[in-house]
Specification:
Protein name: Putative peptidoglycan binding protein
Mean pLDDT: 97
CATH architecture of the largest domain: Alpha-Beta Complex
Pfam families: PG_binding_1
InterPro entries: Peptidoglycan-bd-like, PGBD-like_sf, PGBDSf
Helix content: 25-40%
Strand content: 15-25%
Number of domains: 2
Strand order of the largest sheet: 3-8-4-5-6-7
Low-confidence stretches: none
Amino acid sequence: MKKDWYKKELLLKNTQQRNGADNNRKDVMKIQSWLCLFNIWNPNSATATGIDGDFGPATERAVQNFQKIQGLQQNGIVDQVVFDTLSVNLKNAFETPLQSNDLRSLVVEAAENHVNNHPFELDIKGQSNSGPWVRSYMDGNDGNPWFWCMGFVQAVVDQAASSIGKNFKDLMPLTYSCDTVGTTGLQKGILSRHQQIRQDLSLVQPGDIFLTQKSKFDWTHTGIITQVFGEVIETIEGNTNFQGSRNGIAVMKRTRNLMRSKIDVFSIAPLI
């Protein structure tokens, strides 16, 4: 895989604990981030705590609450074994072996695997688009400016293509920009415009990439098409929400109407 920053998010430099001599601010923030993410999925867990890099009594208690739920020793100390349990969803999303045989099915399977592991952004020190999931999709970048929908799409396509020995960069350049991918699609003749699609729905297939068009050469959001039901598509999208925002909070599965939105479609056929 080309997009492998996620591996850094799975490791601690040293064991971290309250007032520990080997405490590292970045590692403590990783731990606090995963504690907050766990609380999003388990709101009664009382693992949410401030993400400030300070392993104090509140973080210690949050760790103990997590350890209790997981059946681990409740010592408030985070070594690599405890951190592996905290960050297991990220590992599962990126490293669960894919079972499908063709690229389209592999792309859909990979996208499904990610959404099932609950990728979610955090707000850290006033910066949205932050946290381990965002950095994994955006090659270490996070914070307000880093809209991560294309980073998510490319991570999924990279994962699927790599599983069968193909390079996703033969299809598109490594980028975080919807405009770059849209322009690449036009140059290669593999981007179907929404006007064409409305006349021929067969242009849209699972595994393809949708781009919402703001103007002729300006696209603002993207995601993976997982199923097609006539004029309705099911999608899996990063950095979205229940309203379909292009700057939301999570990876989510949605439905979209091809007849009501300006949705262009980038075909992955050249990589097949």
